[in-house]
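Incident log, structure service

09:12 report received: a user says their structure output differs between two submissions of the same chain.
09:20 pulled the input from the user's history:
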Amino acid sequence: MRVLLGIIGAVIVLGIFASVLRTLVIPRPTPAGFTGFVQRSVNRPFRFMADRLQGVEAKDRVLAPVAPVSIVITLLGWLLSFMLGYGLLEAAVSGLDVHDALYEAGSSLFTLGFASSRRASLTAIDFCAAATGPIVVGLQIGYLPTLYNAYQRRETEVTLLQTRAGAPPWGPQILARYAQVELLDDIGDLFRGWERWCAVVSETHTTYPILIHFRSPKADRNWLIALLAVLDAGALRLAFNPSQPQAETRLALRAGYVCLRDIADIRGIPYDADPHPEDPVRLGYADFLRGVEQMRAYGYPMERTAEQAWPHFRGWRVNYETLAYRLAQDIDAVPAPWSGPRRTPLSVRSPVTPIDRRPTG
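09:34 re-ran on a clean worker, output below:
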């Protein structure tokens, strides 16, 4: 019996150490394991409450604490698991029963020392437990600044996009506003910036998957919707303006759907890695025409008709639409145009283009 307790205790301690290393130390995407289980468990009650509320703001308020609470629960889960594992190891190598062994393990793990034993057989395990507690807490403290720095870098570009596309952002709105303020010659800078943004998000959101659930400060902003809007703007640009420079736009599109695929890999979401340009998309042609009309209304120049551009736009969108819709549904992103359905019915929010009030004299 004691051998079995020792084996179980060793498995728990080694497994949780592996989880701590994968989450806080190893700078590469790794299987979620324990942390993924905690995040899913924490997410369920918040999602249950959010699904029963009406309105984007109410849902956003309920879901905003999910990621921070998951971090706290993960730390507590690690410490309690270590206490259980060390307790079983101490019960295996001594004459203590499980209750007393857990009592001593907790005393050592949290460096309180109130239940210290003089048994030589427990000394090594007590020392290991005493070192584990501060190490795990220290790693978690160091982990939080890294996490929030990545969050701030992500949100800076999302907030800047609000001036270019409104809130929530929408691909046709980006092109309409650039045409309205006569900045189409500089639109390559937008795509260059978002190519770099995609690289940063791909690295941080796969290394620290909890960032996927960190929400923007306002309910009408969302990192995924912003990315989708930029990708749609790039696809529209390539579809309607084949004579314009394409390098920055194509690179941004490529970086965008690679970013989505990297996130899908870490979350176990299946996708077609090599879709055909003629594969169907869920965005309807009628919705596409409404976006084109928005661009035309603000003077966006078009070299092709909507009918001619549609196959080209669809050929680009097939690379990222399915994953964007799936992730938007998973994280309850604000229901922007062209962003797919949510788990519960919500009215689509469209950005409002500002009125041009320049003097005419």
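09:41 both user submissions now match this output. Likely a transient worker issue. Closing.
09:42 reviewer note: The longest helix spans residues 120-165. The CA atoms of residues 46 and 197 lie 29 Å apart.
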